């Protein structure tokens, strides 16, 4: 087990009706004016936004509304939010939505807290935020785990780059997680969320490091739970226990718990960022499901025992001790089959990605040959192109 630091300061408020407490919570912390940041019309149609405003008004909390976040949140909107926070003297950002809204909120909070810095420099690793406005979350989609993570990912539309970075400033002050708010999430988005939750743990599970038995068992248990809950939510969208399991798993999957003691670098996430960075019509979870099996088949020989363990402990497959590579490949196939079961794409062809874009995506992902992706197998630009080619499908 390698040295590690685990920091998860977010206050988690979980369960039915918990979103109605938001005004009281914010008043207890002493904030005076809130930016309520959200996505499209669903929070209005569902009545959730009205409930939030009622709760804030009841506690005498001033607020300003800022909606319109899209999937794969963009830098231009974050910059609008930063300007709005400064104009309105906002001292707290409330994200109402899923990972896209939360990441946009974190970017706004970084920018508002560092008025003399260009927020994009943080994402390009050219500067570090000194402070940020505190962020709170009302979660409406179990997927990204941003409600408890240190991560923030934004797309710069001017150059098509989708980049993320981790910072202690990104840990939300609190996250309100009511599984009932996810009942109306579409089948497609539920599938994308299930994939994303699994991927946050799979990327950690298949990273570098050995002798992490407790971390491994936590990861395997989370994956088995998500598979079961994902199947149930796919068929019965209003099953509270399934939705609750997915929501809690999403938070734990990306707060660093499932990778403690390992050297984590998310190769498939890096490869996918180039997909949805160049084409914002591609949902992040769908891009991950289209890439993962091809990535796994490309790298599994560099740690066959790890992939075989995954097959046995997560998918309950029998171990072929004479030919462990067969067990490893069977685990990859089982994962791919499960993604298909959720109606998720498993090839880039299904997403309409052209092979003519592979070289450009690999160049961006490798920073034009200046970086490689560390992991089970270190990936250079040629490796990235090969994985994209394998993922194209027939």
TrEMBL record:
CDD domains: BDH (cd08187). InterPro entries: ADH_Fe/GldA, ADH_Fe_C, BDH-like. Transmembrane segments: none annotated. Residues 193-391 form the Fe-containing alcohol dehydrogenase-like C-terminal domain. The keyword Iron does not apply. Gene3D superfamilies: 3.40.50.1970, Dehydroquinate synthase-like - alpha domain (1.20.1090.10). Keywords: Oxidoreductase. Residues 9-179 form the Alcohol dehydrogenase iron-type/glycerol dehydrogenase GldA domain. It holds the Pfam family ADH_Fe_C. Signal peptide: none annotated. This is Iron-containing alcohol dehydrogenase. It comes from Enterocloster alcoholdehydrogenati.
């Amino acid at each position: 087990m390698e040295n590690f630091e685990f920091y998860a300061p977010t206050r988690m408020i979980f369960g039915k009706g918990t979103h109605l407490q938001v005004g009281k919570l914010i008043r207890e912390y002493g904030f005076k004016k809130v930016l309520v940041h959200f996505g499209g019309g669903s929070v209005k149609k569902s009545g959730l936004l009205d409930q939030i405003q009622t709760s804030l008004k009841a506690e005498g909390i001033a607020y300003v509304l800022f909606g319109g976040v899209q999937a794969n949140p963009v830098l231009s909107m974050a910059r609008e939010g930063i300007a709005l926070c400064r104009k309105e003297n906002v001292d707290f950002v409330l994200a109402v939505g899923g990972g896209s809204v939360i990441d946009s909120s974190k970017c706004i909070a970084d920018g508002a807290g560092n008025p003399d810095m260009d927020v994009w420099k943080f994402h390009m690793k050219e500067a570090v935020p000194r402070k940020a406005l505190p962020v709170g979350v009302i979660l409406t989609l179990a997927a990204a785990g941003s409600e408890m993570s240190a991560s923030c990912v934004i797309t710069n539309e001017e150059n098509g780059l989708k980049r993320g970075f981790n910072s202690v400033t990104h840990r939300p002050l609190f996250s309100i997680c009511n599984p009932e708010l996810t009942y109306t999430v579409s089948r497609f988005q539920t599938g994308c969320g299930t994939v994303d939750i699994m991927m946050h743990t799979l990327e950690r599970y298949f990273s570098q490091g050995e002798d992490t038995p407790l971390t491994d068992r936590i990861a395997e248990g989370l994956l088995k739970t998500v598979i079961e809950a994902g199947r149930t939510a796919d068929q019965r969208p209003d099953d509270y226990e399934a939705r609750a399991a997915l929501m809690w798993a999403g938070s734990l999957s990306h707060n660093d718990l499932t990778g403690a003691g390992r050297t984590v670098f998310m190769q498939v996430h890096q490869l996918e960022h180039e997909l949805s960075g160049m084409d914002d019509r591609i949902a992040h979870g769908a891009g991950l499901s289209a890439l993962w099996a091809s990535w796994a088949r490309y790298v599994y020989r560099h740690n066959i025992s790890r992939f075989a363990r995954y097959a046995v402990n997560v998918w309950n497959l029998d171990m072929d001790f004479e030919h462990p590579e067969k067990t490893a490949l069977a685990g990859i196939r089982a994962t791919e089959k499960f993604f298909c079961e959720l109606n998720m794409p498993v090839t880039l062809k299904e997403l309409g990605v052209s092979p003519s874009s592979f070289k450009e995506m690999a160049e961006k992902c490798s920073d034009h040959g200046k970086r490689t992706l560390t992991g089970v197998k270190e990936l250079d630009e040629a490796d990235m192109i090969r994985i994209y080619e394998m993922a194209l499908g027939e």
